Amino acid sequence: MAKTKIGTKEKKRFVLLKRLISLMAQKAPLRQYYLEIGAYYLKKGCGYEVGQIIKAKKLHTRGHRATVISSLYFNLHTNEITHTAGKTIIRS
Predict the structure, then answer these.
(1) Paired residues of 82 in beta bridges
(2) Residue 27 has pLDDT above 80, yes or no
(3) Which segments within 40-79 are labelled E, that is strand?
(4) Which of 27, 72, 85, 86 has the fewest CB atoms nearer than 10 Å to its CB?
(5) With left for phi above 0 and alpha for psi between -120 and 50, is residue 20 left, alpha or beta?
């Protein structure tokens, strides 16, 4: 029988479900459930992940200069998501 691969979308849902079951086992307050679900939807709606390469430019030597997202900030008061990016050199 062939094995099926779990995609990244299903894997993230599984991680959320696993966290919620863990919170139920630890008898966490309801506020903690809401925080976990809210964090899941913020990450899902952002469109970026920490460590994701935005731009890459080939260098003359072996390697690339890449702009990588280093952190994400969620401002719930103004309903904005901002990020900071840093430049790194990726050797091949």
Answers:
(1) 73
(2) yes
(3) 53-58, 64-75
(4) 27
(5) alpha
Sign of CA dihedral 36, 37, 41, 42: negative
**CA–CA dist 32, 2 (Å, integer):** 39
Q: Give the number of other CB atoms < 10 A from CB of residue 89.
A: 10
Q: State both tokens at 57.
A: 């430019």
Distances in whole angstroms, Cα of residue 88 to Cα of each of 37, 47, 62, 69: 33, 21, 14, 10
**How confident is the model over 3-15, as pLDDT tens digits?**
556 566 677 778 8
In a 3-state reduction of DSSP, which class is residue 54?
strand
Assessment of whether the complete model's pTM goes beyond 0.90: no
CA distance 22 to 36: 11
Helix (H) or strand (E) holding 15: helix 8-25
CA 57, CA 34: separation in Å to the nearest integer?
A: 41
